Amino acid sequence: MAEQQIPTAADVGSMYDQSTDLLSEVMGGNIHLGYWRSDDDDATVAEATDTLTDMVADRLALSPGLRVLDIGCGSGKPAVHIAGGREVHVTGVTISAQQAEVAAARPEVGDGSGQVAFRQADGMDLPFDDGHFDRVYAIESFLHMSDRAKAIAEATRVLRPGGMLVTANPYQEGELDARGTEIVAANRRLFQIPPIGDADEYVAHMEKAGLEVVEVLDIGENVRRSHTLAAAAIRQAKETFDDAFSEQLTEAADIIERFGDLPQIGYGIIAARKA
Fold first, then answer.
1. What are the structural domains of the chain?
2. β-pairing, 133-139 with 159-172?
3. Mean per-residue pLDDT for 118-143?
4. pTM of structure
């Protein structure tokens, strides 16, 4: 099989420029997976994605007045959720011009605690001074970075000493067979993802950047339902588009569902502290 091309930041931005509205609709306003506590948990997608946001926020050890950076802010909903619920100020950055425009139109934009700010920026080259933020988080954004070591080093650079970095990302656990390799390759093409990597890769990058990893939480089985529900919602949404785009959405839904069914695809929250 030919080696897949590594997506550039522009590739990722373009993908989200085109897909943010649909993904936000499918995922309850957020653009990340949801967390269900058990098979019997009847939470909606919106509730489950907010729960995952809260799990990240809990590990940031927030207190009122702190300055927080959201790397890969998507539509801005997680930033608004965290800022309003924890009385902190959240600055969100995204590589997507469309996402930055949508997020910046939110009524919660402002300079005070409980408010948010957004701008277009590359997570691998952050436009902030060293130690500018008290806390940093990244939900499913390092996944897209072509140089994850650099992205994590940048997140560490703008974090003050003693501050927390928390990430949430899918990753690979174990070897894939031929079918699994094909499914992962298709998902990487669909969402502009470099090689997925594993949890140890993220930990190694954090330690090299000077962070102390304090928690690695595997929640792969708790988020797996997201893929099935997202695929179903996309199949329903395709009825509103023309035949050509409807066919593309059908293919995308199939890829998402098959990817989520792979037992080798895990998901973890990693929390680390800057010395």
1. 9-274 (3.40.50.150)
2. parallel
3. 98
4. 0.95
